[in-house]
Amino acid sequence: MTSAPPRVLTVAGSDSGGGAGIQADLKTMLALGVHGMSVITAVTAQNSLGVQGAWELPAEAVRAQYRAVVDDIGVQAVKTGMLASAELVRTVAGLLAGTDAPVVVDPVGVSKHGDALLAESALDSVRTRLLPCATVATPNLDEVAQLTGVVAEDEDGMRRGAAAVLEYGPRWVLVKGGHLPGDAAVDLLTDGTEERWLRAPRLANRHTHGTGCTLASAIASGLAKGHDVPTAVATAKKYVTGAITAGFPLGSGIGPVDHGR
Ligand code: PLP
Fold this sequence. Notes:
Function: Catalyzes the phosphorylation of hydroxymethylpyrimidine phosphate (HMP-P) to HMP-PP, and of HMP to HMP-P.
Protein name: Bifunctional hydroxymethylpyrimidine kinase/phosphomethylpyrimidine kinase
Helix content: 25-40%
Organism: Streptomyces sannanensis
Pathway: Cofactor biosynthesis; thiamine diphosphate biosynthesis; 4-amino-2-methyl-5-diphosphomethylpyrimidine from 5-amino-1-(5-phospho-D-ribosyl)imidazole: step 3/3
Domain Pyridoxamine kinase/Phosphomethylpyrimidine kinase: 15-258
Strand content: 15-25%
CATH class: Alpha Beta
Bound molecules: pyridoxal-5'-phosphate
Number of strands: 9
């Protein structure tokens, strides 16, 4: 009998096209050698062209999935993604308040195609209920602007955005600067004391669907293995850079990142 791998739980939405959301999370976890489990918050009808429809699950179904997993199997790390509504944000935050496992919060707002994955009315619950549960929060620059009002246009702006997110209580924040112009994709990881800049070459590949989900899941996988936050984030950044390099066309729009074939 072999021993069980570390267990990681994703609390997120389903992407029927298999590129982002729960599907990207579980593929990342498989590739990184942890046991992936899921609490589905919403079902999207989605493909390479965007989100055609989204239906959130009742809070009771979210609570029941979470309890089923945590009370029997246990978790060494949790990742949250699309939470859809204020009610689900509050439900998930209430569940996470009771865990000792590290929590990676990807405060998903809007997809690359511009589809809203979180109601405007949920923003306040993300700030005051969800972010305080986070070991690491992973906003991109649009999410930093949405959550804090800080519009970052350069590295100094990223620093101000990171400080504003930390005010809400996550232990660490990883501000993803991939949308800034320049030759490198630059992210800032900080806990308010330490500051680490992570730089990767900008990749020409446009098939990047699921990048954010993949990065957050890779961080959670590293934390579940017992890595500290800077190590888990640096390893995850390498993983996602490789996954984007190998991203492939699918359908007639934006294809997914690749988790290794
Ligand atoms: N669909 C779901 C269910 C997601 O959770 C996310 C991102 O978190 C997306 C779509 C957006 O993916 P992308 O912006 O990488 O295209």
